[in-house]
Write the C-alpha cells for this entry.
Amino acid sequence: MTTSQRPRVVIIGAGFGGLSAAKSLANKDVDVSLIDKHNHHLFQPLLYQVASAALTAAEIAMPIRHIMRKAENVAVYMNEISAIDQEKKIIRTIYGREFSYDYLVVATGARHSYFGNDQWAEFAPGLKTIEDAREIRQRVLTAFEKAEMAETEKDREDYLNFVIVGAGPTGVELAGAIAELANHTLTGDFHHITPESARIILVDAAPRVLMSFDEELSQKAQKQLESLGVEVRLNCMVKHIEPGYITLGEEKLSARTFIWAAGVQASAAGKWLDAECDRTGRVIVNEHLTLPNNPDIYIIGDTAHYIPEGEERPLPGVAPVAKQMGNFVAQDILARIKNDKRPRFKYKDYGSMATIGRNRAIGDLNGFKVSGFFGWLMWCFAHVYYLIGFKNRLIVAFRWLVSYLTLNRGVRLIIGGGKISDLPHKTPENDYQV
Amino acid sequence: MTTSQRPRVVIIGAGFGGLSAAKSLANKDVDVSLIDKHNHHLFQPLLYQVASAALTAAEIAMPIRHIMRKAENVAVYMNEISAIDQEKKIIRTIYGREFSYDYLVVATGARHSYFGNDQWAEFAPGLKTIEDAREIRQRVLTAFEKAEMAETEKDREDYLNFVIVGAGPTGVELAGAIAELANHTLTGDFHHITPESARIILVDAAPRVLMSFDEELSQKAQKQLESLGVEVRLNCMVKHIEPGYITLGEEKLSARTFIWAAGVQASAAGKWLDAECDRTGRVIVNEHLTLPNNPDIYIIGDTAHYIPEGEERPLPGVAPVAKQMGNFVAQDILARIKNDKRPRFKYKDYGSMATIGRNRAIGDLNGFKVSGFFGWLMWCFAHVYYLIGFKNRLIVAFRWLVSYLTLNRGVRLIIGGGKISDLPHKTPENDYQV
C-alpha cells in the first residue's frame, strides 16, 4: 500500500526454494512479493503418505501467509503468472494485477512428464500436488471397494492389480505404502476379497531401483520391497497404457489402477523467459543462479539447471538443493544491494534417504549408509523435524505413533466426487463407469 | 459368498441411523448388507468445523468397513441404489449387483433444499457432505485472498461480505465460526485488508434464531453471535440470489460469498418406494417405523416422518433420533424373527445444543438450560465423546486444545481446483473468473 524506495523482490512459487528465499529476506531492507497459485506450502517428501491414506493433506501443508506472518516486508499473493516482461521488469498475472520487480526469483518447480505420451495422464495420474495425492488415494481405495463387489474372478483380480511406473524415491515409497495398506491396514475389512492378494507391481526401465543411490543400497531397497510383497520389474519399458491394460515390453498386463512416478518436466519458466533449457525444461543458470544474460532474474529449485564446477551432472531436483538455492539468492540480492562481494553458489550435500513401507528406509549420509529399522527412525526424525509448523509436527508424530502401534489408517476416505458413481476407473468395457 | 438360510437384512445408508441399525444387528443371527454411496460415516454435527477450517475431513469421518470390521455378519458395500423392487424384494444398484432382502432398512438421510430455487445452488452451496464443507471452506478462504488482491475498494468490500441464509443450528454455527476466523485466526496475516472488517450476515425469515430452542436461549444465542460481530437479520426473506448480489426483502446487497443453511429435503426414498410423503419428502411411517402397507420396509432418520402419539410435530432430523430409530428397527427385526412381542417406537429426548464461535454454546437438556462458556465445555465433551474412533477422539481433542490456546487454524488449505484460476467466485462481471 505504501510507496517505498526499497528494492522490490518478486518471488514466484512458495515451494522449498521460494519459501527459503522469502524467509531469508524477511525483515530485511527490501519489499518482497511472494506469489503462488496455491495458498499453501507443501511438504512434498511426504505426499506419498497422503496418496496412501496415512496422513491428511492438512498435516503436510501450511498456509503460506501464516508461515510469513511475522515478516512485515513480505506480502503474500495467491495468483498465477501469465507473462514476464523482462524489458519493463513487470510480472503479469491472470488476476490482472501487475507486479514490478528489481529482482525476480523464479521458483516454479516441476511436474511429472509422460515423455510425450500425455494421453496416459488420464489413466496413470502422477504425484506432485495435494490434488494428485487425493486422486491416487481415491483410485487405490476405490479399487478395493470395486473388487469387493466384482461379479467375476477376472474383474476381482484386475481391480487388485496396481502398477506403479517409475522406481525412483516416489515410486518406491508409493509401492511400499500401498503394499502395507493391502497387507496390514485393510486386512479383515472385506468379506469377498483378501486385500493381501493384491499385486503391487513396480516397473522401471532402469536396471535397478533408486538409481540415484549406490548399488548396494539399491539392492537392499529392492529386497525390502520384495519382502513386503512388491513385484519389482526392472529393465522394463512401458510401451502403452489404455483403459484396463498396460503393455510392459512384450507383455500386456490387465489392471485397473496405474500410477505414474517416472518422468519430471520443469515448469514453463523457460518459455516465459525465452531462456535456454535442458531437455527436461530446466533453465540453464550461471554460478549466481541467474540467467546468463539477465543478472536480475534468478532461477532456483526444480526449475534450475546448474552444474557445479568440476562436476558432470546438474544438481538434482530435491528439497535440500532448492532450500539452499533459495537462501543463496536472498543473500546474493542483499549483497548486490550493499555492493558486497558475491560468492558463487555451492551446494552442501548432507545425503539422501528413501523409505520403504512402515518401518524401513535406506539412506546415504555422505557415505554413512543406513538401512532397515534404524534407517526408518532417522528418516522419521528428519521428516518430522523439517515439517513446518509446531502443531503439524506434533500431530504427524502422534499419528505415526498411533498408526505404527495399531496399523489403522484413519485417513481412508474416498472424497472428491465422493459418491461411487462419480469415481473414475477406466475399464476396457466402459469409460469411467463400472 | 456362502449361501445361508438366515434372514437377510439390507440397510441403505450408513449415517447415524443406518450405522446404529447395523451395530445393533452385529453378530446376531441375520445376514446384513450395509450399502452406502460413500466409503465413510460422517459425524455431521461437526461438519461446520470442516467448512470453517478448524478440523480436517479425516477427523470427523471414518471408513464404514473399519467401523464394522468386528461384525462378521455385516458386509459393507460402496454402491448406490437405482431401484427397489418391493414385489421381488430386491434392491437394484448402479453397480449392477442386486441385493435380495427379507427386511429392508432405508436410512438415506436428507439434502438441503432451495425451496424450488435450485438455480441458487451454484451461488450458495449448502452443507451436508464433506465435499460441501470443502467447497464452502474454499470459497470463504479464497474470498479473503481475492480481497487482498482487489484493485478497488468496492471489490475489496464485496469479497469481505459473507451472507449465510438460515439461522438454524448449521447457520448459527457457521456464522460464529466464520466470525472467529475473521476476527482472530486470520488477523495479521494480510497486508492490504484487515480480516476483522469482514461482515458476516446471518439471515432468516423467522422472527428469531434457533427456532427449535425456547425464546430465552434464542435471545442468548443472538447476543453471543452479535458480540462476535455477526449481523443477525430476522424476519427477512431471501428473494433472489445472482452472481454478486443477494436480494433480502427490498434490499439488494452486494457480496461474493453466500452459504445456504436454510431448507432441508429428504432423500428420494419416497419415490423409490412410491410411498406417502410429507412436504419435505419424508416418508410417513407407523409406530414400528415401517411403511404402513409393507411391514418389511423400515424408514428411519431424516428420511422418516414419524409423529409420536400425543404430539403434534414429527420428530426432528437430528442424530439422536436417527440413532434411536436405528437401534429400534434392529430390535424389531430380531423380535419378529423370534416371534417376540414388538413394542412401538418411543423417542427419549436428552436435549439439544448449539455452539456459537470458539467458546460459547447454548443447550437445553430437558429443561436444564446452559449457555456461555459452561455450555461450550459440555458441548465439547458431548461431541468428542460421540466421535467414532479412539484416535479421532484424541486428535480432535488435541487439535481443539491447541486451536483454543493458539487461535491458529492448521487447516486453512484451499484445495480442490487448488490453483486460484480454478476457484469459483461468481461476480457480476464475469462468471467464475476474476
